[in-house]
């Protein structure tokens, strides 16, 4: 998804990957009209065009990892599912399961969510939902660290091999994040940063994890390092003249 204010979606991914010494190709799935304060509208790209963009990205350069963000229609989800089903050799897939905007505007209807769970999660080497997204995928109401852990555990049987559940939206004094795989559960605990310069934070973390996996890290290692990078981008965010604003991808 494109972002005209430059902080989230594909814009965030390209800047994050460049800042971390990688190269990002991009397939636009939707054109958005948004500001750091609100999502004003979204227009999906035809599924055939999305798939052609993805296929084109494999013709020129070696692809080290695939990052999937917003897939705003069942047709797009099914098309990408078909592509991943037939991908040979397999490439690590990082999935940022965008279902709605921060201000509550929903992007995926129930048939699309069902298709996402059926076609995409089986390919997810790393899944990075926030609380709202995990609730939509599991049907569980998440209210604290214990229910976060339960929700993360519920996502593994749906197909994801590693899950990193972000808890920043719970509004607690401390932020809890849960990482689970088939071996162990890890809880990250951190102090909440007092900042409204967080536009694109989720997309930035997912893109950082994706490039780090492409560079040879394990999913767990990539999340650990991506969290550090994201914190730096928030602390180093620029004053753009608006109370709410984007992170600073080039803080380093």
Which helices and strands appear, and what pairs or packs with what?
Layout: H1 9-19, E1 30-34, E2 39-44, H2 47-60, E3 66-68, H3 74-85, E4 93-95, H4 110-119, E5 126-127, H5 131-138, H6 145-155, E6 163-166, E7 174-180, E8 185-191, H7 201-214, H8 219-235
Parallel strand pairs: 3-4, 4-5
Antiparallel strand pairs: 1-2, 6-7, 7-8
Structure summarized in a few sentences:
With 252 residues, the protein is an alpha/beta fold. It is 38% helix and 15% strand. It has a single domain (9-235), classed as Ribokinase (UDP-N-acetylmuramoyl-L-alanine:D-glutamate ligase, 3-Layer(aba) Sandwich).
Number of strands: 8
Helix content: 25-40%
* Poorly predicted runs: none
Judged by helices, strands and strand pairing, the structural class is alpha/beta
Descriptive key words:
252 residues; alpha/beta; UDP-N-acetylmuramoyl-L-alanine:D-glutamate ligase; 3-stranded parallel β-sheet; 3-stranded antiparallel β-sheet; globular
What would your notes on this structure say?
This protein is α/β, with parallel strands linked by helices and 252 residues long. It has a single domain (9-235), classed as 3-Layer(aba) Sandwich (UDP-N-acetylmuramoyl-L-alanine:D-glutamate ligase). The chain has eight helices and eight strands; from the N terminus they run αββαβαβαβααβββαα. The protein has helices spanning 9-19, 47-60, 74-85, 110-119, 131-138, 145-155, 201-214, 219-235, and strands at residues 30-34, 39-44, 66-68, 93-95, 126-127, 163-166, 174-180, 185-191. The strands form three sheets. The protein has a three-stranded parallel beta sheet, with helices on one face. A three-stranded antiparallel beta sheet has the order 6-7-8, covered by helices on one side. A two-stranded antiparallel sheet has the order 1-2. Strand 6 and strand 7 form a beta hairpin. The longest helix is centred in the C-terminal third of the chain and has 17 residues, at 219-235. The radius of gyration is 17 Å and the shape is globular. The two termini are 25 Å apart. The mean pLDDT is 93.
């Amino acid at each position: 998804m494109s972002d005209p204010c430059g902080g989230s979606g594909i814009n965030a991914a390209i800047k994050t990957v460049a800042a971390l010494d990688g190269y990002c190709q991009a397939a636009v799935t939707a054109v958005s009209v948004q500001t750091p304060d609100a999502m004003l509208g979204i227009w999906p790209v035809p599924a055939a065009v999305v798939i052609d963009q993805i296929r084109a990205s494999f013709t020129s350069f070696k692809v080290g990892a695939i990052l999937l963000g917003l897939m705003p229609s069942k047709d797009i989800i099914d098309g990408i599912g078909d592509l991943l089903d037939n991908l040979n050799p397999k490439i690590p897939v990082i999935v940022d399961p965008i279902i709605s905007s921060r201000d509550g505007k929903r992007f995926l209807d129930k048939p699309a969510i069902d298709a996402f769970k059926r076609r995409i999660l089986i390919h997810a080497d790393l899944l990075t939902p926030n609380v709202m997204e995990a609730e939509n995928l599991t049907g569980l109401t998440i209210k604290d660290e214990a229910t976060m852990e339960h929700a993360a555990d519920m996502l593994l049987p749906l197909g994801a091999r590693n899950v990193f559940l972000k808890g920043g939206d719970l509004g607690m004094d401390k932020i809890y994040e849960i990482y689970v795989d088939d071996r162990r559960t890890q809880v990250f605990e951190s102090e909440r940063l007092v900042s409204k310069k967080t536009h694109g934070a989720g997309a930035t973390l997912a893109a950082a994890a994706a490039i780090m996996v492409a560079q040879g890290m394990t999913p767990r290692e990539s999340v650990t390092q991506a969290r550090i990078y994201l914190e730096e981008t928030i602390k180093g965010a620029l004053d753009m003249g608006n109370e709410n604003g984007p992170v600073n991808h080039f803080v380093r």
